[in-house]
Design brief:
The chain has 2 domains: 54 residues, no CATH class; 278 residues, 6 Propeller (Neuraminidase), CATH 2.120.10.80. Helix content is 13%, strand content 44%. The longest helix has 9 residues.
């Protein structure tokens, strides 16, 4: 499978997409384009899918300079990308090895259904959360905030907590972000404005009683976790440091429950067993009552085999569910607006099935700076 390098990524296509002879023979007449206003070029390019913009950087030096210019960045920042991308990493089941050695990193574009090999991203860290176009990751020593598209990376300063259990991230509308991390008994919050760790304090007893949480989601300044052992959601406001717990009533015969975010709403995603059938089911957690409202369900094919686990990430109305069987990783995306399910698979998923998968959803953005 050939890889095509551009913009810091290697594009991996599961199916060959050779251009036709007709496409290769098209001649772009200079007299048509030489007087085309450059500002209009920038306006048009800024509205194209982000993968196309990255490709255009290798057309010539002039196009690369245009796309990397400050004025183009301003145009691009004004256009919101409709679909999130997903940053996934696979590593060994051993906790210590996982933190020190991740050999497989991918960025998935659900719009084009393309996988970008990000193994050249040399930081030995796990993605744990995201906010906007930035991804937060950590290893056994340090924490990082990075933009996976531009490969710009910032290593956060050392804080007071040496051995952390969880790390999470929020971002406000101006692009400033905060990172929350906590251990068995303490927590602290990093602020990108002050560039220091603050809010050092003790974790409430209701959080200390069970520190086994699924992947977190962030909405504005607040981070939410699903307690794996209890039917509750725990939250922390990163601007005030206030913790809270919210009890929910999960459906009977449901399992592998995970949280996801969609346009400011908290979604609960998991497996549902009904009679002899199994479904991937999506519920919306109502803000006031905390009651669950079913959004949709997708029947889990028996051909997938016995399910070993489910992980879900979501952003901007699109959810990605990663289903792990004994033979393969399976990918299913769901568009909440169109109510459409799309099946896909992880590259070399059968070879990586013994690896644990980590990931997060982020908004592709060329201008997000850590």
């Amino acid at each position: 499978m050939a890889a095509e390098n551009f913009g810091g990524f290697s594009l991996m296509e599961c199916i060959s997409t050779k251009r036709s002879r007709r496409d290769r023979n098209i001649i772009m007449k200079p007299q048509i384009w030489e007087n085309f206003p450059e500002d209009l070029f920038k306006v048009v390019l800024a509205r194209l899918p982000i993968a196309t913009v990255i490709r255009f950087r290798i057309v010539c030096h002039q196009w690369n300079n245009l796309i990397t210019s400050q004025s183009f960045s301003q145009y691009h920042a004004q256009v919101s990308q409709a679909n999130p991308w997903f940053y996934l990493a696979l590593g060994d089941a051993s906790y210590k090895v996982t933190l020190q050695k991740i050999n497989y990193k991918f960025v998935y574009d659900p719009f084009t259904k393309r996988w970008y090999n990000s193994s050249t991203f040399k930081i030995p860290a796990l993605p744990v959360s995201s906010a906007g176009g930035l991804v937060c990751s950590f290893d056994h020593r340090n924490m990082y905030v990075c933009n996976p598209l531009t490969k710009s990376v910032k290593k956060l300063p050392t804080g007071s907590i040496m051995r952390q259990r969880h790390s999470l991230m929020t971002m406000n509308k101006s692009g400033d972000y905060r990172v929350l991390r906590f251990s068995h008994s303490e927590y602290e919050i990093y602020d990108s404005v002050t560039k220091i760790w603050g809010h050092l304090g003790s974790i409430p007893e209701f959080v200390q009683s069970n520190l086994y949480f699924s992947n977190p989601v962030s909405i504005d300044d607040t981070i939410y976790f699903k307690d794996i052992g209890l039917e509750r959601i725990v939250s922390c406001n990163t601007s005030t440091g206030v913790w809270a717990q919210h009890f929910i009533q999960v459906p009977l015969q449901s399992f592998f429950l995970r949280l996801a975010e969609s346009d400011g709403r908290i979604m609960l995603v998991g497996m549902l067993r009904k009679n002899d059938a199994r479904y991937v089911c999506i519920w919306e957690v109502q803000k006031v009552t905390l009651l669950l409202k079913e959004v949709d369900r997708f029947r889990f094919s028996k051909s997938y085999g016995i399910l070993r686990g489910l992980t879900c990430w979501g952003n901007n109305g699109l959810l990605l569910c990663c289903l792990r069987s004994y033979t393969m990783y399976h990918i299913v995306t769901y568009n909440i607006a169109t109510r459409k399910w799309v099946k896909d698979h992880v590259p070399n998923g059968s070879k990586l099935v013994e690896k644990n998968i980590f990931g997060t959803a982020f908004q592709p953005c060329l201008t997000a700076m850590p």
